[in-house]
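Action item from last meeting closed. Structure (427 res):
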């Protein structure tokens, strides 16, 4: 029997899909390359933006009519939404909350001993990792923050942290298998808490695992960055010098209506503290600060928007993921008037992108002449490789050496562009 899984959205969804694949493969299924060959089709959905949602409808539409014998499962952010269930009730066999998949998917495929689902228990399932050298390891699921625009707390429920022993065991196994990069995942990783283990302690315990590997995490909330956490990151040999610090908006009134629980002043002080810690503990080592910003939140005026631009100029980000506000059913912001036009949202995104181009290019220039360890991601043509630094910079280099994909290699950075670097291999 074959299954086909289509994943939309964030890295957490991709990681969940790896666990679903692991579960199905444990029960005798194999992955189909084409949806036509699969008897079971799973859509792991994202509800963060309308566009992502529409893509799901587009792909599910007609699937049941063309292939009435296939079992179709919808999980992820949209699975719990009553309006989605009504709309797709004739096209989907099972709407599945991700935390329930071992029990409910087990029942659908007739698995013997399908266990009762409970909170984060599904994270105990051994995943079918999609890469042989980079692995995402969930450390928690859910979110308690209720940012007014976000569906996650409704789709995934409240925060549940995973047992640190399970996390450490999973990472030990990965390092033994030769994995070079571990990415800890959660909606709000820095509020991780299990028994006596908080996030800084978890990072320190993972750091003790023998072997050479990079350690990073996403996503972290600015309000949960303690001094201890900043020091732990900046002092670490294994934790990447890459801090994702979602701003969302630079104006206090908008931040309050977003329910972000920090002010612009607090955010700027935090960014300053993080930069100072890197300079103190790793002088001369490049670091990256990246962010997420929403433009056109309901009621955001041009003047308020200008505060986001100003924060960008002060922090000098390496990368920002922009989102034009998209009202999501069930959230607090859904009831607010979406009164910034599409054209205005596009204008605001473009103007912020111009600032980003300048700061990213200036930050990249600091790499020229430096020796950097990179993880090689892929090879194109005969001799062109693409790699990443610990700071998340993409690096292109040429080499006629074979077998570099998945390896850590030393490069000398010889050129900086706006969105990437170029290097030459030295060993
Ligand atoms: S912190 Fe806010 S934006 Fe992030 S998942 Fe939680 S509610 Fe959503």
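Sequence:
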């Amino acid at each position: 029997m074959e299954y086909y899984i289509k994943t939309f959205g964030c890295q957490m969804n991709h990681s969940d899909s790896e666990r679903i694949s692991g579960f199905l493969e444990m029960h005798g299924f194999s992955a189909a390359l084409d949806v036509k060959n699969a008897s079971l089709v799973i859509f792991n959905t994202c509800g963060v933006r309308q566009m992502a949602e529409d893509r799901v409808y587009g792909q599910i539409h007609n699937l049941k009519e063309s292939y009435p014998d296939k079992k179709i499962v919808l999980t992820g952010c949209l699975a719990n939404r009553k309006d989605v269930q009504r709309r797709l009730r004739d096209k989907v066999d099972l709407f599945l909350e991700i935390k329930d998949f071992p029990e409910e998917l087990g029942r659908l495929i007739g698995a013997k001993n399908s266990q009762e689902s409970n909170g984060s228990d599904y994270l105990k399932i051994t995943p079918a990792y999609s890469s042989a050298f980079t692995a995402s390891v969930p450390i928690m699921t859910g979110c308690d923050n209720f940012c007014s625009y976000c569906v996650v707390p409704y789709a995934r429920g409240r925060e549940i942290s995973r047992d640190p022993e399970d996390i450490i065991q999973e990472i030990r196994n990965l390092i033994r298998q030769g994995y070079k990069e571990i990415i800890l995942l959660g909606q709000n990783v820095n509020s991780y808490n299990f028994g006596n283990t908080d996030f800084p302690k978890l990072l320190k315990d993972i750091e003790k695992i023998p072997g050479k590997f990079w350690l990073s995490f996403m996503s972290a909330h600015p309000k949960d960055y303690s001094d201890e956490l900043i020091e732990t990151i900046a002092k670490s040999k294994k934790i990447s010098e890459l801090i994702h610090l979602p701003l969302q908006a630079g104006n206090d009134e908008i931040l309050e209506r977003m329910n972000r629980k920090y002010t612009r002043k607090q955010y700027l002080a935090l960014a300053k503290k993080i930069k100072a810690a890197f300079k103190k503990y790793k002088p001369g080592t490049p670091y990256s600060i990246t962010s997420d910003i929403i433009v056109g939140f309901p009621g955001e005026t041009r003047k308020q928007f200008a505060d986001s631009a100003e924060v960008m100029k002060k922090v000098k980000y390496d990368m920002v993921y922009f989102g034009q506000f998209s009202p999501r059913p069930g959230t607090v912001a859904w009831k607010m008037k979406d009164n910034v036009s599409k054209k205005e949202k596009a204008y605001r995104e473009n103007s912020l992108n111009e600032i980003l181009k300048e700061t990213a290019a200036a930050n990249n220039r600091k790499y020229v002449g430096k020796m950097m360890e990179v993880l090689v991601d892929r090879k194109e043509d005969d001799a062109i490789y693409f790699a990443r630094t610990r700071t998340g910079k993409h690096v292109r280099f040429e080499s006629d050496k074979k077998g570099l994909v998945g390896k850590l290699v030393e490069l000398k950075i010889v050129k900086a562009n706006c969105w990437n670097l170029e290097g030459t291999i030295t060993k």
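Note appended to the action item: Residues 143, 145-147, 150, 152-153, 187-188, 221 surround iron/sulfur cluster (CB under 6 Å).
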